[in-house]
Design a protein that fits this description.
Blueprint: H1 2-12, H2 21-42, E1 60-64, E2 66-88, E3 93-98, E4 105-106, E5 111-116, H3 118-162, H4 165-206, E6 211-213, E7 218-223, E8 232-233, E9 238-251, H5 257-262, E10 265-269, E11 274-279, H6 284-293, E12 300-303, E13 312-329, E14 334-336, E15 339-345, E16 351-361, E17 365-370, E18 377-381
Antiparallel strand pairs: 1-18, 2-9, 2-13, 3-5, 3-8, 4-7, 5-6, 7-9, 9-12, 10-11, 10-13, 11-12, 13-17, 14-15, 15-16, 16-17
């Protein structure tokens, strides 16, 4: 506007005895602006309160300082998956038949793998022969020990009849030592025989149980690479994992295991219902199996009344929480080189800068540890 007025004054010249027209207009505008600014300062309240400056177009609102929980919340995607149960080999043997494959649906008790029992039959026969041999050997050794003791007792009687006190005392000590030795050896042989008979019984019990069966209704999720026809199987080693819908869990692929384990609270929703979740650690066997298979180990959670397997969920993870603390809206916080502060509203409507100390900062609120009291009013940037 000023450039336009000056241009007109130059073109038209100036009246005699008067100031240049453009200069007069500029002075008049300056007087008006001064009056407006003066009026604004007069209505701003206390002259000691700092001026609250905002960008052009910004508006100000107020909020009341409250006491509530302050926490950091993160959102992830998850899915309900079935739990797994182990199917193990019931005995040593050789795999002769594999009746299922990964992805097959099975029923509890259904045969998954069969073993050849030829080796078990041979083992039973060898154990029976060893037990019989050991019994005969023990019987012979017991007879020899009894004869040795009887011989010394006969010698004692002869020495007593002759009045050989020195010989009698020496033979008595020898007899006691022999009896102790024989008793210890007999107990040791009995213990060895008992262990062998227990092994034989366990092997007999295992015979006729040469099948790996499903521990539950479900789907074959994994089979050991060693489960092949002709491969040797070891008792109590893993053959397969079977999914179990009754032990459903929630997997969260993008959440770290450490964050999942240390979270304050974890919930999930399918859009209709919210579920409380609890971190469910993996067993050592599960971790090793997944590592060997190259499977990514994802955090998993258990929960009551989970929706059907395959359902996708929105998972809310509260990593850090401060309960029942003084909080303000995050957009009420100001910071400069001196620290954090807010603008408080006095009773007369004027503003006051207040230095504060903060704690946890979430996406929407800030914990205030010093400088504010519950119920105070503060400015909030809208």
């Amino acid at each position: 506007m000023r450039l336009k007025l000056l241009g007109r004054a130059k073109k038209g010249g100036r009246a005699s005895g008067s100031a240049p027209r453009g200069k007069s207009l500029v002075l008049a505008a300056a007087v008006c602006l001064s009056a407006v600014l003066g009026g604004c300062r007069d209505g701003a309240g206390s002259a000691s309160a700092p001026e609250l400056l905002e960008p052009v177009g910004a508006t100000r609102d107020t909020a009341v300082v409250t006491r509530e929980d302050c926490y950091k919340l993160a959102i992830y995607n998850g899915q309900v998956v079935p739990g797994n149960q182990e199917a193990k080999f019931p005995q040593d043997g050789t795999v002769t038949e594999i009746l299922v494959h990964i992805g097959d649906t099975v029923k509890k008790g259904q045969v998954l793998v069969r073993l050849d029992e030829t080796g078990l039959e041979k083992q039973i026969q060898e154990l029976e022969e060893e037990v019989s041999r050991l019994k005969q050997e023990n019987s012979l050794l017991d007879t020899i020990a009894q004869k040795q003791e009887a011989q010394l007792e006969l010698t004692l009687q002869e020495q007593k009849q002759r009045g050989d006190s020195a010989g009698y005392e020496e033979t008595s000590m020898e007899l006691e030592a022999l009896k102790l030795k024989n008793r210890q050896e007999k107990e040791s042989r009995a213990l060895s025989l008992e262990e062998l008979e227990n092994t034989l019984q366990e092997t007999r019990d295992a015979y006729g149980n040469a099948e790996v069966t499903a521990p539950c209704d479900g789907v074959v999720q994994y089979m050991e690479e060693s489960v092949k026809v002709g491969a040797a199987a070891k008792k109590d080693t893993l053959a397969a994992y079977i999914s179990d819908a009754s032990q459903a869990a929630v997997l969260c692929p993008d959440l770290g295991n450490s964050a999942a384990q240390n979270a304050e609270k974890v919930t999930a929703t399918d859009g209709e219902k919210e579920y409380e979740l609890t971190y469910l650690p993996y067993t050592t066997e599960e971790s090793v199996s997944m590592a060997l298979a190259g499977t990514k180990i994802m955090p998993r959670f258990s929960g009551e009344g989970l929706p059907p397997c395959g359902t996708y969920l929105t998972i809310s993870v509260i990593g850090v929480m401060r309960e029942n603390v003084i909080v303000i809206p995050v957009n009420a916080l100001h910071q400069d080189s001196s620290g954090s502060y807010v603008y408080c509203v006095r009773e007369d409507g004027s503003q006051e800068r207040r230095d504060i100390k903060t704690g946890l900062v979430s996406e929407t609120t800030v914990e205030v540890t010093e400088g504010l009291e519950e119920g105070e009013t503060i400015y909030v940037k809208s």
